[in-house]
Amino acid sequence: MQALFSQVDLGLLKKYDTPGPRYTSYPTAPLFSTAFTAEDYKQEILDTNAADATSDLSLYFHFPFCDTLCYFCGCTMMVTRDRNRIAEYLRYLKKEIDMIAPLLGRNRKVTQIHWGGGTPTHLSPEELLDIGEYIKSKFNVDPEVEMSVEIDPRELTQKHLGTLRHVGFNRMSMGIQDFDERVQKAVNRIQPEELSLQVLKWAEALDFHSINLDLIYGLPFQTVESFEKTVRKVLHFSPERIAVFNYAHVPWMKKHQQLIHPEDLPTPEQKLDILKMTIELLASHGYEYIGMDHFAKPTDELAISQKEKTLYRNFQGYSTKSGADLYGFGMSSISHFQNVYAQNEKNLQDYYKAIDAGRLATHVGYRMTEDDHIRKYVIMRLMCDLELDLATVNERFGIDFKRYFESSLHQLQRFVDDGLVEISPDKISIIGAGRLLLRNIAMCFDAYIDTIGKTKPVFSRTV
Hints:
This protein is an alpha/beta fold. The chain has two domains: 1-26 and 370-463, Arc Repressor Mutant, subunit A, CATH 1.10.10; 27-327, pyruvate-formate lyase- activating enzyme. The protein is built from 16 helices and 19 strands. The strands form five sheets. Strands 9-10-8-7-6-5-4-1-13 form a nine-stranded mixed β-sheet, sandwiched between helices. A three-stranded antiparallel β-sheet has the order 14-15-16, covered by helices on one side. Strand 4, helix 4 and strand 5 (140-151) form a beta-alpha-beta unit. Helix 3 packs parallel to helix 4 (125-138), helix 4 packs parallel to helix 5 (158-167) and helix 8 (224-237) runs parallel beside helix 9. The longest helix has 22 residues, at 83-104. The chain is globular and about 60 Å long.
């Protein structure tokens, strides 16, 4: 890992800095269609549960509300301080749970629960307890369940964290982004270092098993020197996981990002220098680069799972729960199991309207083909294992890999020529700085990449 940048020309990374998917799904979300209806989704749930009533479940709950607007945010969220509005949303969330939980059967264990947003901790401690206990009363939750939650320290109290721990949450992810005051003001997220430190002390006292801290590079006014100070402070906290995200400036998709002035953003060359410094600094402190902006201590489950080749990617990022069917609840949430993806309404009133009508809130979805399954497997293993065993693919899907992916291997050759990928008779390996270009490499195996985004941009840049 320390040698990741030792011989690479940063200009090489700039060469591959093009728009591309993050591959939290394959096919990617732009292919989801309204042709897949709520009735289709319900029938898929029934059919899947009838055929397999014992496989594990992973549940995602989306809480869209925030106290203030962070200008860099790319999430489906809305700002409100109206507590009645939040209470209303929780009532509808319970109704959706009541519609779906009976379809799944009590024999299926929930091994993973994740709350995202928005800001789940914008709820009061009493609301956290109420919805948390309600969820656990409706599903067969494994006593060893992994429960993770995204928190915002700016409006958090010790009672919030204590309540989450009481409900069963054992992992938390906290956004820091950057400690530099000028950067914070430019993106409207004022979060003093002392505040973050206080929350981490509370979490440690409450025995949260794993803490992830999120940083973002590419924000206004960031420099190598300023961001290094932030990274060193985060290293002092010594979290189990650190995510260092590339800021995706997509004002055509997220209108509020127009509040960020393009002239204040680092240049592409400056961003690469910031990334180089960050990787080298984290590596020197023992963190392993998992891929796709994620770093973990060697003792963390993500690092262990990667070594054991059981790592997985879903809409929450990297995961160790590869065998679980994912069901999403709340506006904009996405479900994925067997052959289907299904996403709920992104508009709050449309979400309410569907629930009031007694139907599932599905807005768009997708039914996978056999080719989709093959390509998803290939992309998943490359992004998680950083290599691909060709014989395993051939045996699993009954194909001749080199013939089936002749076009993909041709596209991959430029990465081989640049020393980013190695291809042997039985394996494809991502090497050196190729680990920073996983999205670009995966695009070689994407059957739809040439047809998506031709009329308007839909993806962020890869570097």
